[in-house]
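user: Please review this fold.
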Amino acid sequence: MIQSLTPQFIRPKFVALVLGLAAATTGSASVADAGGLGIFNRSACDVAPCDSACGDPLCCDAADCSGLGCDGCVSCVSDCCDAGLLGGLIKPSDRCFDDFVSPMINFVHFEDPRTLTELRPIFVNHWVPERIGNNIPAGGSIQLLAMQFRIALTERLSLIGVKDGYIWDNTNGALDGLLDDGWASVTAGLKYNILRDTQSGTIASIGGTYELPGSRDALQDIADGEFHLFATGGQRLMCGKAHLMSAFGWRVPSDGFLQSESIHWSNHFDLKLTEKTYFVTEVAWWHWIDSAEGGAALGVAGQDLFNLSTSDVTGNDLVTQNVGLKFKPNAKTEWGIAYEFPLTEFEDVIEGRLQTELIVRY
């Protein structure tokens, strides 16, 4: 029956995926490898004998295409056999995808598919349109200083904290009367790596988070929080000179009477300009599939930082793009800057956004 429902050209991969997932549930890594998708495979970087000779964190990525991603390397990164912190409770980041850089757009919900241990301070200056939604006077700006974290608990499983920090209100008009300074909501959850092929540079993960309400003054305490379910993946291109990432997510409020429900699709492309500098451009799409029945007729929902109690946003679409640079002096440090702007006539609450960030990785 499965064969009759799947086109002939995708059947081998479909069967491989089924075999890989079946092997994962039974703990058989070798069968998963036999599926041909690299699911739960153990690359050369994961095998202790290859982890001793090279001190350069990017040695595997300096080889030719066959060596990219560690599997083709004679020697591998010494960090691969690091026992970890706190007696092995915290694992080091996956070193076999060090040629990638993390996405910036939709930073609360666009999750990097890699297994990482890192701290990521982020500063955002967000400009609000002069009129928002149903001709509500606004304008001015909002600032956010946040600290994301990711902790690799195993080679596949990560604890992630993607939203926190403090919000400063510098808006105008009626919006200034609604919004004030205050603490952002706290959002945390788990991410699990389901596909990892270091030779082809393909990686994919799934996960979920829960948002705890924050400050009432900063409009972060509406209802009892929300759930976010996501799938995210990445692909190495041009022998590591370029990369793609894409993520799809579903934001589900715990109380649909007071908050809206939405989906998002975020996409990242980067191109190495030098050995340490990357050009980055990204596009994100938000679509609101259900309004808050008990909300007000505001006409806006709040993009990624807010989930306002709004009764008339069902069917709205917002598309934004950013352009920026990433500077990566070594495998454990990454700095980025990007400017984001709307592409659709509907702007929700964004006229423009300047984002800077620093990533310190273990």
The two ends are 47 Å apart (CA to CA). Confidence is low (pLDDT under 50) at residues 1-80. The first strand starts at residue 118 and ends at 127. The chain has two domains: 2-81, 95-361.
